[in-house]
Amino acid sequence: MKQITKTITSELQALSNAEKREIFPKFFKAGKGEYGEGDRFLGVTVPNIRAIAKQYKNISLNEIRELMQSEWHEVRLCALLIMVEKSKKKDEALRQQLFDLYLSQTDRINNWDLVDLSCRFIVGEYLLNKSRDILYQLAQSPLLWDNRIAIVSTYAFIRKGQLEDTYVLSDIMMHHPHDLMHKAIGWMLRETGKRNPERLYDYVMNHRADMPRTMLRYAIEKFSPTERSVLMKRV
């Protein structure tokens, strides 16, 4: 194990919570046959991981790559949060390097929290003024985490009032086999509805017959009870 990995792992272990260490493997579905199968947890909360990440935000990209190979979930999350910290700099060359590094490690960004806490900043915000073709490639990937990165990264666009990619990617992945994607797509659709509720309402009306129910429930959460009642009807 490289020195930076040893150091950060040791600091995270010092913050370990025995109860969390027992709960996390169940919460993040790390059992046999589950989406997080085989992952290992130290039992450290996100605020504590963020604090460590801020302390080490100046480590090199090679050191971040080393951290991403850790067997420990929280060490990989710390690496990702360090990347998020670095992405805040107004340095386009660095942001591109972070973007490239991130997409080279998606097999290690292998749970929903790792994706959701990082991709909007490292992928979405980087692509705000660039081609979004890579998101459509990720949407077609056989890797679940690539698919989730594709849709959740559009959160950065939504916050700028740019809704089109979210809807197109939702169309592409509408019938994804995994419930984690139904939740992610529904979540992003719900966010578009905060900017343009009429467009979301029309979209759901047009897709409610075949939209997975979890996706549908997430998407319409902010509508009134009456509107939700109408939209939940299949026909």
Automatic annotation (TrEMBL):
Q: Which residues form a coiled coil?
A: none
Pfam name, any one: DNA_alkylation
Q: Which PANTHER family match?
A: ARMADILLO-TYPE FOLD (PTHR34070), DNA ALKYLATION REPAIR PROTEIN (PTHR34070:SF1)
Give the protein's recorded name: DNA alkylation repair protein
Organism, scientific name: Prevotella melaninogenica
